[in-house]
Here is the input.
Amino acid sequence: MKREGLLCGGQRRHGAGICHRPAGAGTSHRGRGRCSWHGGASPTHEAHDRRVLAEEACAQLAIPVRTTAVRALRDELARVNGVLGFLYAQCAALTAAEMTSGEWQRTTATGTDGETRQTVVTRAGVNVWMRLLEHWSQRLTDVAAAMARLDIDRQAAETGRELGGRAVSALEQALDGAGITGVPRLRVLQLLAAGDDG
Ligand SMILES: [Zn+2]
Here is the structure.
């Protein structure tokens, strides 16, 4: 679909020049494409418009479009759900100490007695599983929102958005469960928001 700014731009049937009605006037895609007098309301045009929108949504989410954009969004929703299921399990198994500290460095040395010893250095920061859970729940929400906008699998999209919201409360519950409140809790949330490597 050509983008002629905010006008329809279709060839006038009576008289010279192009149509100056607003783009998509009288169609389901107001603001984009031809108006209803110039083919904008035809099933082909409407289908084309949905495809353009889906491709734009995919580009924004950086999903590779292998088959169709609609198909890619469906696949992505399934993939993100799978990743989140795994991450829930990882986060549920964390202890309070593990939640706020991450392994930073692991060194192996052989002592004078010939014994091999491992030194593990940890430092304060949000556990990588929790950071990933937060990242992927945001992605689930984004994919589901794109699907809802395009009216793809409305049911699946709504469930996806719900799950995205639930992932955020799972994070809150994980913090509750570990007894992380007050300043440390704010620190955890701050680190998550900043994408700090901890
Ligand atoms: Zn027109």
